[in-house]
């Protein structure tokens, strides 16, 4: 519904989807505004203050519905620009925008998503399985262009949690994106603590997203990974999300699972201060477009 100070996001679900439709998941579209509102209200009822919707261009993000859903639920929503893997995106969309990605991303961040007036608050792109293909390199190059023009964060889908270091080499090395403008998603799907630590040491934010049946994430691995990062001094770079991607996963366990199960469980393991950082302090820095004082 417009720009807000990042420190007013409150408890944040740092990666989820209210709306999404992709050829990869036929019949499992998230396309019901009333269901999205109910899910967001359930999250808000447990203290949730904001949800980052990582649904990018061409995947049924329904940007025109986001303001009234957000207002009805009383929960902030961050919209996304960007482009997912080619196989997730309708071929006609890829063909139409592939030569103007940088301009498209920048325009949706600054001018708004066409026909809606809703501005995106982040860029979402995707890597490949254990590497980067031509499509990934093209979208990340465009994302870097838009990031430099705006200060927006870049959220990266890591396929099955892999390829984090390749992504950082491209975005932060060759393309010179500040590492604290990069959010690496799905790291829980590849519980390689060595890679997690190296990505944290590089300065990126690490998103562990998907404690839902749709992604078969195992909560005990999630806890072990977060404990290891905290013990290594990287608690300040952890983000948590639900990543509900199918209609079957909505409400089962859905967004409330983060606050009903994951949050209290982590508080027992790591203490309330660290977990407040995961849900409040870290997202406020990760999603802030400001260029100064993000490390404080």
Give a verbal description of the structure.
The chain is of the alpha/beta class and 296 residues long. The chain has one domain (6-286): Metal-dependent hydrolases (TIM Barrel, Alpha-Beta Barrel), CATH 3.20.20.140. It has ten helices and nine strands. The chain has helices at 33-45, 66-73, 91-97, 101-110, 134-150, 164-174, 193-202, 219-231, 256-270, 272-286, and strands at 11-16, 48-53, 76-78, 80-82, 122-126, 154-157, 182-185, 205-209, 238-241. The strands form two sheets. The protein has a six-stranded parallel beta sheet with strand order 4-5-6-7-8-9. Strands 1-2-3 form a three-stranded parallel beta sheet. Strand 8, helix 8 and strand 9 (238-241) form a beta-alpha-beta unit. Helix 1 (33-45) runs parallel beside helix 2 and helix 9 packs across helix 10 (272-286). The chain is globular and about 50 Å long.
Keyword list:
single chain; 296 residues; alpha/beta; TIM Barrel; six-stranded parallel β-sheet; three-stranded parallel β-sheet; 14% strand; disordered C terminus; hydrolase; Phosphotriesterase; metal-binding; Metal_Hydrolase; Phosphotriesterase-related protein
Integer count of domains: 1
Give the total of beta strands: 9
The level 1 CATH classification is Alpha Beta
pLDDT average, as an integer?
92
* Element string (H = helix, E = strand): EHEHEEHHEHEHEHEHEHH
- The percent range for helix content is 40-55%
CATH topology, which one? TIM Barrel
Distance N to C terminus? 27 Å
Shape: globular
- Report the sheet with the most strands, covering strand number, pairing sense and barrel closure: 6 strands, parallel
CATH superfamily: Metal-dependent hydrolases
